[in-house]
Design a protein that fits this description.
Elements lengths: L8 E9 H14 L3 E2 L14 H24 L15 H50 L15 H13 L1 H7 E9 L3 H12 L3 E7 L4 E2 L6 E2 L1 E9 L1 H13 L3 E3 L5 H57 L3 E3 L4 E9 L3 H15 L6 E5 L16 H10 L10 H15 L3 H16 L1 H4 L6 H8 L1 H18 L1 E2 L2 E2 L8 E2 L6 H4 L13 E2 L3 H4 E2 L4 E2 L23 H35 L2 H31 L5 E4 L3 E4 L14 E2 L35 E7 L2 E6 L18 H6 L10 E3 L5 H10 L14 H20 L1 H16 L29 E2 L2
Antiparallel strand pairs: 1-10, 1-11, 2-10, 2-24, 3-7, 3-8, 4-7, 5-6, 9-10, 12-13, 14-15, 16-17, 18-19, 18-23, 20-21, 21-22
């Protein structure tokens, strides 16, 4: 019963020796049965006893996460955590992790330096190759296409510059110079424009893109780069070009003067790249090997350090007794777990080797204990959802038990689809079946949310599948699982539809229902068989024939809305009944009579009544419901009349529109408004009602409201009094017409706006007007009963206790008197607290 009502809690006090504190808390943590209170509220976090140990654990966790990032960067997966992994002491592990961090940072910096050198050698090689190619094209007389915005020049210009540099002597060579290098391609255009404006066009810029991108050794992002060479004249231009290159993060490289020197430089760079590649490979292998070794211990170290941090954090909640040289702790424990806690304390003492056993005392207190619900793997997810809205008080009923069914059921009503529900069920089933294998992957935040809600997903998928069968939809496509649709249409080739009497499929513009009309009336002998006409209904769920109709959306939405109202009202009533169970358990008669009573009355007098109207509307056969004389509702089963009209109320023969020839002319003297077939439209018959009066009886035949709207007007002459005095008047008298299903929304609105008045055409149940007036009166009376009696009674009780309480007691004189048992006040046990881990 622990899941239905919170556990009975006990306040315990522990006296723990310093040497046994760590091992004792380890054993208590495995029981997961104690919530410790904070006995050091007046101290800040930096004044706690074990704050240095907590900082040490934080530092170790930082180093472990740093190593984890390195492993994820190299694609190394962490190994499984052993159940009892060999872990060194906390101090040894801290020193080891510090050395490891220093080693990995040095290695990472060295490796980044090598990567940077490789990138620079690649750039140097591309610059040398590109410059050699440009010089060769210039000497060979190849014409270059001049780029826009003054970014380049022709081959003749480049050749002239080279000739001046080679034959002009010292003066010419000194006035002409060049700078070559590499620049990110994204900065190339701005770089060229800046050069052109700074030198006023007195330069020649050549550039080319490098096909393979470069990987940044720090950010690990790929960067596209381009090589360039700038020819200029004069030392002043050199300074300007040099500063612009630095501002655009260009890498500058020196170019040899002759072609042979250029070839030698290229070979030298390539040889250095080969040597650097060997060094990088060995460094990479060492890095991977080291990280793979660490991956075997990473999970064990993380678990161990987090556990130690939780232990020290919990020890900071304890109070240190200087005289006894021990730690004093207080906490809440379920009464059913006291024996397990004592056993854990004994194991902790033995494990630590302490000479003194930890002392446990159960303290009697008037504090309100915390709420604790035992949850299983199935109910844990739903308990978390309920707790997100609010936690029940101590010893109250647990609403999460109801949520195990109601939450996935309401989700299924919203998400009802066979295909989507099966997919969700399979996902939840896989997570539940392989939950042990997938538990390691639950460390990820996104997958962890999915994993911890696996049973929620499974139940939601099952209920969504069930609701999908109710809606008869597979991936939003109508599915005839339980047989053919009950609706016929002109395109169908079903003999039961094509051969139906009174239907001409080629000319039919609307769908029609299958029926047993041929069994209820013998069309050959033109007489009734005595059977009632029954219109076919789809065996289970929504008829898929609605899928291709124009009012499908209105029909389905109306059904879902009404069903959601019923489910919501049932859930609200269940919540109020939970309050009743709590009042009975705590013997709180005031709440039971003046809270539960008014609440349940108010809900059911309005919303419960609405649910009754919805169910009545769903279960009423509106084809056989008629309004008689605008005064009362009568039900006329669709059984066809015999020749003598002895079985009234009954119906006239189907698809026979000549009233005067029926039943030997008994209906020929009736007024014209007593006939439902008008303008040649043949129907399945008109209802006939036999009304008895003191002078005999009258036959009243169903009229057509669309042809004569006065017969449905209660203010006209078609009333009960007129029917008694002159039943067969043309402009008054008796009337009988088919009732249409009323709008429940209008009914609920008019329940408050027109109290006690319900037109007969809008009635769903007999005596509806008086019933609504009574329910409305009860609802209004329940509101002050809910708001006033309980506060007034509690106020009176409080004043009575204050009047007769002795001095110094709660509620008595405000003068404070010290007492020997001041240590038992709430301040000694107050405060929050925290679980061990």
């Amino acid at each position: 019963m622990a899941q239905f009502r919170s556990e009975e809690m006990a306040l315990i006090q522990l006296f723990i020796q310093n040497d046994a504190a760590n091992d004792t808390l380890h054993e208590l943590g495995h029981t997961n049965a104690v919530q410790f209170k904070d006995l050091n509220k007046d101290r800040t976090a930096f004044q706690r006893i074990f704050v240095q140990d907590v900082r040490k654990c934080d530092d170790m966790l930082r180093i472990i996460r740093y190593v984890q990032d390195l492993m994820e960067e190299e694609g190394i997966h962490m190994g499984p955590v052993a159940r009892h992994p060999p872990v060194p002491s906390l101090h040894e592990l801290h020193e080891r992790l510090q050395d490891l961090e220093k080693e990995m940072k040095q290695h990472t910096a060295s490796y980044a330096t090598l990567l940077k050198q490789r990138s620079e050698l690649r750039e140097h090689r591309h610059v040398l190759s590109g410059a050699a190619h440009w010089f060769q094209q210039a000497r060979g007389g190849v014409t270059f296409t001049a780029p826009s915005d003054g970014e380049g020049g022709t081959g003749a210009e480049l050749l002239n510059l080279l000739d001046e540099a080679e034959s002009g002597g010292r003066a010419t060579a000194g006035s002409l110079g060049h700078i070559a290098g590499c620049i990110p391609t994204a900065n190339l255009r701005d770089f060229a424009v800046t050069l052109f404006r700074a030198t006023r066009g007195n330069l020649l810029l050549k550039h080319d893109d490098i096909e393979q991108p470069f990987k940044d050794p720090l950010t690990h992002e790929e960067v596209q780069k381009s090589i360039f060479i700038v020819f200029f004249s004069g030392e002043r231009s050199r300074q300007k070009v040099d500063k612009i290159c630095d501002s655009y993060n260009c890498s500058k490289y020196r170019l040899p003067e002759t072609a042979s020197q250029q070839d030698t430089a290229i070979r030298d760079v390539e040889e250095r790249m080969r040597d650097l590649k060997t060094v990088l490979t060995r460094t990479k292998d060492y890095r991977l090997g080291r990280l793979e070794q660490l991956s075997e211990h990473h999970g064990a170290w993380m678990t161990y350090v987090m556990r130690e941090k939780a232990v020290f954090h919990t020890l900071n909640l304890f109070n240190y007794d200087v005289t006894r040289k021990c730690l004093i702790a207080e906490g809440w424990c379920p009464a059913s777990e006291l024996q397990n806690v004592r056993e854990a304390l004994r194991r902790g003492t033995l494990k630590s080797g302490a000479n003194v056993q930890t002392v446990l005392n159960v303290v009697r207190t008037k504090e309100t204990p915390p709420t604790f619900f035992k949850s299983t793997r199935l109910t844990a997810g739903f308990q978390a959802i309920v707790d997100a809205y609010g936690v029940a008080k101590y010893q109250e009923m647990n609403p999460a038990v109801f949520a195990v069914i109601t939450f996935p059921f309401l989700f299924g009503v919203m998400f009802g689809d066979i295909g989507h529900g099966i997919m969700m069920t399979l996902v939840g089933l896989i997570l539940c079946v392989f939950e042990k294998r997938l538990s390691a992957a639950a460390r990820d935040e996104m997958f962890g949310t999915l994993y911890h809600g696996r049973y929620n997903i499974l139940l939601m998928g099952l209920f969504a599948t069930y609701a999908g069968f109710i809606y008869n939809e597979l991936f939003s496509v109508p599915l005839e699982v339980f047989g053919h649709t009950a609706w016929c249409s002109g395109e169908m080739s079903d003999p039961a539809c094509i051969g139906m009497k009174g239907v001409n499929p080629p000319k039919q513009t609307q769908k029609w229902l299958r029926t047993n009309l041929a069994d209820a009336y013998d069309f050959k002998d033109m007489k009734s068989t005595g059977q009632e006409v029954v219109w076919d209904v789809y065996p289970f769920g929504t008829d898929p024939g609605f899928a291709h109709t124009s009012n499908k959306l209105n029909s389905v939405n109306s059904f879902k809305m009404k069903f959601a109202i019923i489910a919501g009202v049932v859930q609200m009533c269940a919540g109020v009944c939970t309050k009743l169970m709590n009042t009975l358990y705590f013997k709180d008669t005031i709440t039971m009579y003046f809270v539960f009573g008014p609440e349940i009355v108010f809900i059911n007098s309005i919303f419960g009544y609405l649910c009754i109207l919805i169910m009545s509307k769903w279960t009423t056969n509106w084809d056989t419901t008629f309004v008689l004389n605008n005064y009362e509702i009568v039900s006329i089963p669709q059984v066809y009349c015999d020749v003598t009209l002895s079985n009234t109320p009954c119906w006239t023969p189907p698809f026979y529109d000549n009233r005067d020839d029926l039943f030997g002319g008994r209906l020929s003297r009736l007024p014209q408004h007593m006939w439902c077939m008008k303008d040649g439209v043949k129907t399945a018959g008109c209802a006939v009602y036999k009304m008895s009066v003191s002078s005999g009886f009258y036959y009243i035949v169903e009229g057509n409201v669309f042809a004569n709207k006065n017969i449905a007007n209660p203010l006209s002459n078609f009333t009960k009094a007129e029917c008694t005095m002159n039943p067969y008047r043309e402009d008054g008298g008796c009337s009988l017409w088919k009732q249409s299903p009323p709008s429940l929304l209008d009914t609920l609105i008019k329940m408050f706006m027109e109290v006690g008045t319900v037109p007969v055409a809008n009635q769903v149940i007999p005596g509806q007007g008086g019933l609504q007036a009574f329910l409305l009166l009860v609802a209004f009376v329940s509101v002050p009963m809910l708001l006033l009696p309980k506060p007034l009674i509690l106020k009176r009780r409080h004043e009575s206790r204050a009047r007769f309480s002795p001095l110094g007691e709660p509620g008595g004189s405000p003068v404070h008197h010290s007492a020997p048992d001041d240590s038992q006040e709430d301040d000694g046990h107050g405060g929050g607290g925290g679980c061990l881990w």
